[in-house]
Amino acid sequence: MDNSIRFIEKHLNDKSKMHHQASSIGYQLFLMKIIDGHSLADNLILKYKKRLVDWNLEDLLSKQVEYGIVIAESNENLEYEEMHKLFSLCDEI
User: Does one domain contain both 76 and 53?
Assistant: First the structure.
């Protein structure tokens, strides 16, 4: 669990994040709160929500959904990498 806390705290202190990075932090927080019931989760979730505003990622979920739709609606056959991205997005959403 200490590795997860260090990972989250390290990334929450970064100046900027991309959508997939912020989503990964959110997923780690979800696991920490729901699965592990860790006592520090609530404070880290509050900090995460503030950082989403700082990073201009308040609409993170809608951006992830839009990206998934773009991949799914591709006119070409999806290769392994695109399929993996799509399934990963579905997991995160």
Answer: no
C-alpha closest to that of 57 among 34, 90, 9, 25:
25
Are 2 and 43 found together in one domain?
Answer: yes
28 CA to centre of own chain? 8
Q: Are 62 and 19 in contact (CB under 8 A)?
A: no
Q: Give the tens place of pLDDT for each residue, 37-57.
A: 777 888 999 999 999 999 988
Name the pTM for this structure: 0.71
H helical segments located in 13-93: 19-30, 41-54, 60-72, 80-92
The alpha carbon of residue 18 and the mean position of all alpha carbons in its chain are separated, in whole angstroms, by: 9
Domain membership of residue 24 as a residue range: 1-58
